Amino acid sequence: MGVVNFPFFQSARANEKSQALVLGNIMVVFVVVFLLFNFISMYAVNWLTFPLRFITRTLGATTLTGKNNPLQWKSNDEIGMMVTEYNRMLQNLENSKAELARTQKESAWREMAQQVAHEIKNPLTPMKLTLQRMELNAGIDAEEKKPVIKTLLQQVEILDGIASSFSSFAKMPVPILNQINLVQTVAKAVALYAQGASGKVLFTAPVGDWWVMGDEQLLIRIFSNLIINGLQANPDESAAKVVVSMNAGDQRAIVSFADNGVGISEEVMDKIFIPSFSTKKSGSGLGLAIAKQGIEHMNGKIWFETKARIGSTFYIELPLVFL
Fold first, then answer.
1. Could you give the count of Cα atoms lying within 13 Å of 283 in the half-sphere of its Cβ?
2. Burial 208-246 (b: 16+ CB within 10 A, else e)
3. Contact 59, 65 (CB under 8 A)
4. Which of 39, 164, 260, 303 has its CA 20 to 30 A from that of 79?
5. Are the CB atoms for 149 and 135 separated by under 8 Å?
């Protein structure tokens, strides 16, 4: 047996070229795959971090003075939970801004009201005393002078009442809360106007006693102011009517004051509880502002509903106390 050898002197060089070609192809494929994965990873990172960048931009644009829009996110994932919490925080911020603005406005009005009351009170007292002295010393022309003096005295009394309202608003203390019978308190306020010369005040007391934590004197003033407003809402004083009702539910009592006046126009609905705003020529515009502040100090709420040419209904809600 034997082996026949045919030597091929170019085989080593061809092998090296083949290896170099394979390595070159591998490097080209590796580079292509590397670039492809870089592109895909960059797209994936942008896609994954978009919600965070979106929330970051929105948080950076959040302001205490301007308007903040809530975020919209349809998915219920972790980002959705974060967006929900952000929107809740945004709502709390808006409520705090509104409360801060209202507090600052009330503080400014208190300072101004105190100054106005002081300036009005100073000349009123000597004017009133002088008119009363003139009324006593009218003499021969008493029949002609007394009506004029009486009219002037009435106007002085109106000014004095406005000054007193400003002074009360400026110095209004925090209500002293005690357990009071709400039914009896409403009945006391209604009794002041039940026999009035103009208009009717109707009230049917519910059965039993409803106890709340409140300031009785302040509540009587608030109820009285709502009754007066209801009676004055109807241009025809003889036909004016206010129906006072009481309802209870969900551990809260609601007292309503419904009138048959002309209603509240849409243009002034947002201004009803603002200090100094009034739709009456002789009003100081502080009655409802004092009512709102007092009711909120008692952990209650006050609001209204109105219909043109049908009337308005004011509601006061207070938490019940169970003895």
1. 18
2. eebbbbbbbebbebbbbbbbbbbbbbbeeeeebbbbbbb
3. no
4. 39
5. yes
The radius of gyration of the chain from alpha carbons, rounded to an integer in Å, stands at 39
CB 213 within 8 A of CB 321: yes
| 78 phi and psi angles, rounded to 5 deg | -65, -40
Q: Rounded CA gap, 26 and 248, in Å?
A: 84
Which amino acid is present at 25?
A: N
Instruction: Print burial letters for 274-307: b (CB count within 10 Å at least 16), e (below 16).
Output: bbbbbeeeebbbbbbbbbbbbbebbebebebebe
Distance CA 17, CA 317 (A): 95
Neighbours of 98 (CB within 10 A): 10
Phi, psi angle pair for 295, to nearest 5°: -65, -40
Nearest Cα neighbor of 244 from 203, 214, 205, 273 is: 203
The tokens describing 213, both together, are: 């934590």
Q: What's the pTM?
A: 0.56
